[in-house]
C-alpha cells in the first residue's frame, strides 16, 4: 500500500505530464492558420476568421438604380441597410447563379458592413505551414489581386483571399454604373 506522500507524488507526476502534453497541443494548434472556406465560381478560397463577421442565407434585396450589375442592391439586416455584392460578378463579370448553397459573407469595411454573395461556404478550414504552396501560374484573372497566399489540402488548391484588400480597392468602392 502506498503512503499518502507517494500518492501525492503520483498525482504531481500525472499533473505535470498532462500539463506538458497540453502545452504541446496548444503549440501545435497555434501554428495552424484558420479561416472560413468558401467557393466563388471554380475557385476555392479561404479568408481569415477575423475578416468575416457572419454567414447569412441570401436575404431579400432591393435593387439600387444606376448601380453596377455586381452591386445586387441593399438588404435590411436587423434594421441596418447592408450593400450586397455579387463577388463573382465583381471579380469576373459573371453573375452568381443563386442556389440552395449560396451564402452571404458579412464583412466589415470603413463606413459599415457589406455582404459578399458566394456560391458556397464550406466551413472553417485549418492549414499548417507545410500545406503552403507556390502560387500557380498567373492566369490574368482579377481574383489574383486579392489572393495573398496558397494552400493545398488533399486535391484541392485553396487561395487565401484578402477581404481587407478587396474592400480597400478603389473599383470596389465605385459601384455606380
Write a brief structural summary.
The chain is 24% helix and 38% strand. The protein is built from four helices and eleven strands; from the N terminus they run αβββββαββββββαα.
General description of the model:
By secondary structure, the chain is an alpha+beta fold. 24% of the residues lie in helices and 38% in strands. The chain contains four helices and eleven strands; from the N terminus they run αβββββαββββββαα. The chain has helices at residues 4-30, 87-92, 163-168, 170-173; strands at 33-40, 43-48, 54-56, 71-77, 80-86, 103-109, 112-118, 120-127, 132-133, 147-153, 156-161. The strands form two sheets. A six-stranded mixed β-sheet has the order 8-1-2-11-10-9, with no helix packed on it. The longest helix is centred in the first third of the chain and has 27 residues, at 4-30. It is elongated, with a radius of gyration of 22 Å. The mean pLDDT is 88.
List strands and helices in order, with pairings.
Blueprint: H1 4-30, E1 33-40, E2 43-48, E3 54-56, E4 71-77, E5 80-86, H2 87-92, E6 103-109, E7 112-118, E8 120-127, E9 132-133, E10 147-153, E11 156-161, H3 163-168, H4 170-173
Parallel strand pairs: 2-11, 5-7
Antiparallel strand pairs: 1-2, 1-8, 3-6, 4-5, 6-7, 9-10, 10-11
Index terms:
177 residues, six-stranded mixed β-sheet, five-stranded mixed β-sheet, 4 helices
Termini Cα gap: 85 Å
| Tally of strands | 11
Following the backbone from N to C, one meets helices and strands in this order, namely HEEEEEHEEEEEEHH
DSSP strand (E) fraction? 35-45%
Strand order, main sheet: write it out: 8-1-2-11-10-9
Alpha carbon gyration radius: 22 Å
